[in-house]
Amino acid sequence: MENRNYKDRDGGRRPNFHKQPKVDKMEMVFGLRPILEALHAGKTLEKIYLQKGVNHSISQEISELARAAGVPISIVPPEKLDQLTRKNHQGAVAYLSSVTYLPLDEIVASIFEKGKDPLLLVLDRITDVRNFGAIARNAECMGVDAIVIPSRGAAQINADALKTSAGALNLIAVCRENNLKDTLHFLKQSGIRVVACTEKAEEELTDASVDLTGPLAIMMGSEEDGISPEYLKKADVRVKIPMTGQIQSLNVSVASGIVLYETLRQRSKA
C-alpha cells in the first residue's frame, strides 16, 4: 500500500548549493584497488557490492572507509557480481554517484547565516527511483532547500531518478545520513520543527492549527508502510492529507506535492 500522507520563496531563488552535471548512466568501478583508491580520493559512491566470503585486507579497508562516508555496502554471492559486470571484478563492484552528497550541518548553517528559515524534506525509505525523482521535482519547484535520505534503504539516484526529476536533482542539495534518528535530533536541536506526514495523524493539513512556517523539516514515509515508528516519535507535529474518495490512498510523490504546496502557500503569506 502506498503511503497516504505525505518553502520558502521570499520573492527570489534560494541559495544554489550545487549544480550537478547531467549524467546519462551510473559509472561503474570494479576491482578492490580501484574502489579503495576512489574512496581515498573522496569520490562519491552510490553503493558498493562486495563478494561474500572474501576476507582481504583491502576489502576490510573498503568497508571501514565506506561506513565512515555513509556509503551503503551489500555483501553478495559471486553470481550477483557476475551479473553486474563480465570483467574481472575481483569480488568488488561499486557505482559512482550521479550527485555529490552534501553535509547537512553545513547546509543548515548556511541557510541560517543568510537569514532564511530552512525548509528540508526528509525521506524515510523511499525506494522507487521514479517516485524519488518526482519528489525531487516537487521539492525544487516548491522551494525546498535540501532533501535528506538515509544511507540504507533509499532509492539509488540513477539515470531514471535524474530523468524523472526533470533536472531538479541537478539543482537541489541532497544529504545522505547514516542515522536518521540522530539526524532528526540534530534538526530539532538546531531549532527546526519536524512535521511528519502520516495517516496516523489526528490533525489534517488544512486545519487552522497546522503551522508550516518557520524553520521546518517535512518527513515523508516509505511506499510500503509509511514513516518508521521510531521516527514518528521524534516528530513535533503529525499531519494527514484530508481525503473524501473511496481509495483513501495517494502515491507518495503526489502526496509530497500536496504537502509542499500547502507549505509554500503558508510561507508566502507569513
Characterise the protein shown here:
This protein is α/β, with parallel strands linked by helices and 270 residues long. The chain folds into 2 domains: 28-96, 60s Ribosomal Protein L30, Chain: A; 104-269, 3-Layer(aba) Sandwich (Alpha/beta knot), CATH 3.40.1280. It has 9 helices and 11 strands. The strands form 2 sheets. The protein has a 7-stranded parallel beta sheet, sandwiched between helices. Strand 5, helix 5 (129-141) and strand 6 (146-150) form a beta-alpha-beta unit. The longest helix is centred in the last third of the chain and has 18 residues, at 252-269. The chain is elongated, with a radius of gyration of 19 Å. 42% of the residues are buried. Residues 1-24 have low confidence and may be disordered.
Give the CATH superfamily of the largest domain.
SPOUT methyltransferase, trefoil knot domain
In terms of structural class, how would the helical and strand content be classed? Answer: alpha/beta
Low-confidence stretches: 1-24
User: What fraction strand?
Assistant: 15-25%
| Mean pLDDT figure | 88
Return the domain count.
2
Elements, N to C (H/E): EHEHEHEHEHEHEHEEEHEH
Give the CA-CA distance, first to last residue.
Answer: 36 Å
Backbone CA Rg:
19 Å
Strand order of the largest sheet: 7-6-5-10-8-11-9
**Biggest pleated sheet:** 7 strands, parallel
CATH architecture type of the largest domain: 3-Layer(aba) Sandwich
CATH C-level of the largest domain: Alpha Beta
Envelope shape: elongated
**CATH topology of the largest domain, what is it called?**
Alpha/beta knot
Instruction: Let me know the number of strands.
Output: 11
What's the total helix number? 9
Helix content: 25-40%
